[in-house]
C-alpha cells in the first residue's frame, strides 16, 4: 500500500513537471508578421495603455492610440518620435462615454486599415471613480464610473468588432480582481468591473464562432498608473466627505473619516505591485502569443489574496474580512459604537 502511494506521488509530480515545462515553451510561441498587424488601444493618455502603445509600436505593430486629452496625445506622440517609432503610432481623440466620439474614431481607423482587418482591440480606458461607503455616495457616482468601465467597453467593442472579425483577431480588455471579489468603499468600481467581466465572458463564447479570441486582464493594485495617485485620492475623498449630509457626518463622525482615509492609503501602499509595465507585458502577450491565456491575473495581491478569497464560500469570506478588520483596528461609525 505504501509503495502504491509513493508511485502515485511520483507520477503526479512528473505530470505536474511536464505540464509546467510544456506551458513554459508554449508561452514563447508567437504569431508572425507583427509589422502587418494593426491594434487599436483605448485610454493611452497614461498608465497601462500609454506603455502598451509604445511597446507595440516598438515591435513594429501599427498602433492607433485612443487618447482622452490633447495633452496625453501630445506626450505619447513625443515619446514615440523620440524613440524613432513615430511612424508606427497614431493618436486618435477618444471619449469612450460618447457614442459620437467612438464612431469618429472608428471611421478614422477603418479608413487607415484599408483592406486590412484589426488584429487587436484593447479596451484599456478606465476610471476608479468615487470611493467611500455607500452612505456617502450618489447614484451619479455609480453611473459615471459605469459609463467608462462598463458601457465604454460595450460601445467600443460593439463598434470595432466587425474589424476584428475581419482579421480573426483578438479582443483584450482590462477588468480587475475587484471584478471577482468586492471590497468595502469601492462600490462603483467593483460594480463596473463585475459588469465588464460578465460582458467579456459572454463575448468570449460568442466570438469563437468568428475566429476571434477574447482575453481578460485582472490586475491587482498598481499605484503608478495615476488612478491611485495620493493627491488625487485625497482630493476626491475630501470632496466626498464635504458634500455628505450633516446627518450622515454625525452618523459616521469626523474621526471615522480621518481613520478611513489613512486606512485607504495604507492598503494601497501595502498592496502596490510596483511597475505597471507588468500589466502592459500581459497585454502584449495576449496580443502576440500563439496560445494566449483567457485570463491574466497580475500582481502578488491578485494571486495570493483576491483570487483565493473569491473562491471561498461567502460566509468564510465575511468571517475573514471581519477578522482582518479586527486585527488592524476596526473602523466603526460613531452611531453604532
TrEMBL record:
Domain of life: Eukaryota
Gene3D superfamilies: NAD(P)-binding Rossmann-like Domain
Entry-linked InterPro entries: NAD(P)-bd_dom_sf, SDR_fam
Any matching Pfam family: adh_short
GO biological process: steroid metabolic process
MF (Gene Ontology): oxidoreductase activity
Name of this chain's protein: Uncharacterized protein
Amino acid at each position: 500500500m505504501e509503495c502504491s502511494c509513493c508511485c502515485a506521488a511520483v507520477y503526479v509530480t512528473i505530470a505536474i513537471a511536464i505540464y509546467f515545462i510544456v506551458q513554459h515553451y508554449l508561452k514563447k510561441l508567437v504569431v508572425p508578421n507583427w509589422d502587418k498587424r494593426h491594434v487599436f488601444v483605448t485610454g493611452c493618455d497614461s498608465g497601462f495603455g500609454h506603455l502598451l502603445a509604445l511597446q507595440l509600436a516598438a515591435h513594429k505593430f501599427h498602433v492607433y492610440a485612443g487618447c482622452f486629452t490633447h495633452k496625453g496625445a501630445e506626450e505619447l506622440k513625443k515619446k514615440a518620435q523620440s524613440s524613432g517609432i513615430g511612424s508606427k503610432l497614431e493618436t486618435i481623440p477618444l471619449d469612450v462615454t460618447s457614442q459620437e466620439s467612438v464612431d469618429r474614431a472608428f471611421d478614422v481607423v477603418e479608413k487607415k486599415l484599408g483592406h486590412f482587418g484589426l488584429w487587436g482591440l484593447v479596451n484599456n480606458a478606465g476610471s476608479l471613480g468615487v470611493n467611500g461607503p455607500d452612505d456617502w455616495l450618489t447614484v451619479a457616482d455609480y453611473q459615471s464610473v459605469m459609463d467608462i468601465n462598463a458601457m465604454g467597453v460595450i460601445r467600443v467593442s460593439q463598434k470595432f468588432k466587425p474589424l476584428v472579425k475581419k482579421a480573426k483577431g483578438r479582443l483584450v480588455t482590462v477588468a480587475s480582481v475587484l471584478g471577482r471579489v468586492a471590497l468595502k468603499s469601492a462600490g462603483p468600481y467593483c460594480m463596473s468591473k463585475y459588469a465588464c467581466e460578465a460582458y467579456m465572458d459572454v463575448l468570449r463564447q460568442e466570438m469563437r464562432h468568428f475566429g476571434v479570441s477574447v482575453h481578460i486582464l485582472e490586475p491587482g493594485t498598481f499605484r503608478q498608473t495615476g488612478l491611485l495617485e495620493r493627491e488625487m485620492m485625497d482630493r476626491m475623498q475630501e470632496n466626498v466627505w464635504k458634500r455628505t449630509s450633516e446627518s450622515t457626518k454625525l452618523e459616521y463622525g469626523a474621526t471615522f473619516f480621518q481613520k478611513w482615509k489613512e486606512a485607504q492609503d495604507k492598503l494601497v501602499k501595502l498592496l502596490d505591485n510596483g511597475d505597471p509595465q507588468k500589466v502592459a507585458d500581459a497585454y502584449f502577450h495576449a496580443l502576440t502569443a500563439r496560445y494566449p491565456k483567457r485570463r491574466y491575473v497580475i500582481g502578488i495581491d491578485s494571486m495570493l489574496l483576491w483570487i483565493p478569497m473569491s473562491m471561498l464560500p461567502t460566509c468564510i469570506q465575511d468571517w475573514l474580512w471581519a477578522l482582518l478588520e479586527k486585527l488592524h483596528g476596526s473602523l466603526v461609525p460613531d452611531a453604532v459604537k
